[in-house]
Each structure stands twice: as structure tokens, then as C-alpha cells.
Amino acid sequence: MKRSHLISLAVGAVMCAASAFAQAPPIQPVMMKQLKPDVWAGLGGSGGNSTIYIGKTGVIVVDAKQTEAGAKDLLAEIAKITPKPVTTVFLTHSDGDHVNGLVAYPANVKVIAHENNKKEQQAAIAAGGRGAPPPDRLPQQVVTKQKETMTIDGVKLELYHWGPAHTSGDLIIYSPQNKIVSTGDIVVTNRADDNPNIHMDKNGSVEGWMANVKGMIGLNADSYITGHGDILAKADLQRKLTAVTERRNKIAAMVKEGKSLEEIKAALPDTPAPGARAAAPPAAAAAAPAAARGPVPGFVDAVYAELTKKKTT
Ligand SMILES: [Zn+2]
Asked: How far, in Å, is the centroid of ligand 1 from the Cα of 45?
């Protein structure tokens, strides 16, 4: 009796997994956009945006996509542009939608990331579960300084990390000769300007976010390839920085007045994402597992935690 109950549970679990798989939305094709003779953006598709630099003998990719199928789609698009192999992948941060597609890349590909990105991936692998990065594709080279310059295959790149922002291991990739910046998820266009995504569970930081955006604005750049959404100009980053600074100041004023986190959240709710779908079945479907985990901490939580931590120390 007990045993048959267990078996039916197991069968049920398999069927649930199978139906979840069957309901997974089809992969959106990546959209390739040429920015310079040897620089492309691979927008959307599976996971975050990618940047592609064609070097003398090989290809450098910034951010790998989320899934094997999505990464294969990107690699197929790259193969239409050049017969050169992908030799190097930079990661802007450790989130699976930028990392996990690495499984589809050549086995000898070199992965470069910030040292905290590698630590976050190692922690995710140790914790296990769905969404963990591929354990055999950890970064072989890590960035530890605020600025590092490297020339790979004739492509000169500057790497920046002005402290934790979206995560503790953000890395900004800048090509001075092309005036192009890959921002990672520090800058996205699928969220409101005053609502950046700060992963508190990965020690992200609102103050660090502002420092990184100021740093990116200070670069001699025309095009900012965001983590998700459209390519932006410098004025767009300035607008986001102003919006975030103003909202943070409002939160700070309420903290000073002794308001509680819940009072501040009620007074300063998140602005909906631009073009937010009024009737979005995927959001409703995603709500169930999110509810089981509890609400994900948002911008107000992050600002409040930073400001109140400071007061007591
Ligand atoms: Zn992302």
C-alpha cells in the first residue's frame, strides 16, 4: 500500500516534470545586429543579450545564453558571419540566463569572469538543483582588479568592476576602439528606469549599482549593449541613474522619518516594467513557484537594508 502510494507519487512527479517541459515556451530566435565591422550584438533569444567580437583567428562572446538550444542558435548565427571558432567567453555575471548556455560551446573555450562570479557559480553548483551552472565550464581566468586591460586575438578590451551592483561579481566589458560597452544586467530595458534588479542573495548593492553606472557613463562609448532588451545610448544611462538616485533619496528620507519597510514599500511601489503585459499568462504561471519561495526582495528592500545597516554600524 505504502509502496504503491510512493510509486504513484513518483509517476505523478515525472508527469508534472514532463508537462512542465511540454509547456515550456518555444525558444525565441536570437536577433543579430551588426554595430561595427567586427562587432555584433546577439539580442534576446534564450536568456540575456550577447556581444560578439570577431578577432584575427577566433571569436569572443560576451554572455553565453541560458540554454543549450539557445546557445546553439547563437553559435549558428555566428557561423553565418564567420567561419572562425569561438575561443573566449566573458561572463558579465553568474546568473544562469547568461551562463548556462556554455554547455553548447567548444570544450576548449576559455571562460573569463570576475572572481566573485566564479564563487557564486561554485556556491550554486554546491547547492545543486535546477538552474545550477555547468560544473565543467567554470571560469578558468578571473578578474580581481577594478580595471584590467587585455588584448585577445587582436581585440583590445577593458574590463571594469566598480564594486558589487546587480551581483557581487559583475564585470563590464568595454571596447575603446569600437566605443561599445556590455553592461550585463546592471542595465536592462525590460524594467522601469527606477527599478534596477539588485540580487540581495548574491550580495548586489544599490550604492554599487550607482557607482557602476557612473563609471559606464564616464567611458568614451556610444553603444551600451544591455543585459536584456535594447541597446542604449549614454543619455539613457544618465536618465536611469537620475531615476534611481531620486527614488533612493525618497526611500532614505522615509527611513530618516522612522518609517517601516512595509510603509515605504506601500508609499513607493515598483513602477511596472515598460510595456508590461496587462494579461500575461506566463507571469501567472510563474507566480506559483515564486509564491512558494516567498516574494523576491526588490529595490526598496535592497535600499532599506543598506541604509539601516549603515545606521547601526
Ligand atoms: Zn539576466
From this structure: 12
Q: How far apart are CA 160 and CA 287, in angstroms?
A: 35
Distance between CA atoms of residues 203 and 163, nearest Å:
10
Taking the centre of ligand 1 as the mean of its atom positions, its distance from the CA of residue 253, in whole angstroms, is 31
End-to-end CA distance of the chain: 59
Span from the CA of 255 to the centroid of ligand 1 (angstroms): 30
SS (H, E, C) 270-311: CCCCCCCCCCCHHHHHHHHHHHHHCCCCCHHHHHHHHHHHHH
**How far, in Å, CA of 210 to CA of 182, rounded?**
16
CA of 228 to the centre of ligand 1 (A): 6
* pLDDT at site 46: 94
- Domains in the chain, CATH or no CATH each: 26-312 (3.60.15.10)
Residues 168-201 have pLDDT tens digits of: 999 999 999 999 999 999 999 999 999 999 999 9
- The pTM of the full predicted model, rounded to 2 decimals, is 0.86
Distance 12 CA to ligand 1 centre (A): 32
> What's the whole-number mean pLDDT along residues 35-42?
98
Least confident piece of the model among 16-30, 125-139, 237-251:
16-30
Angle at alpha carbon of residue 128, lines to 97 and 30, rounded to 5°: 15
**What distance in angstroms lies between residue 7's CA and the mean position of ligand 1's atoms?**
38
**Cα torsion through 243, 246, 251, 256, rounded to 10:** 170
Q: In the structure, what pLDDT confidence band is assigned to residue 296 with cuts at 50, 70 and 90?
A: confident
* Cα(177) to centroid(ligand 1), Å: 26
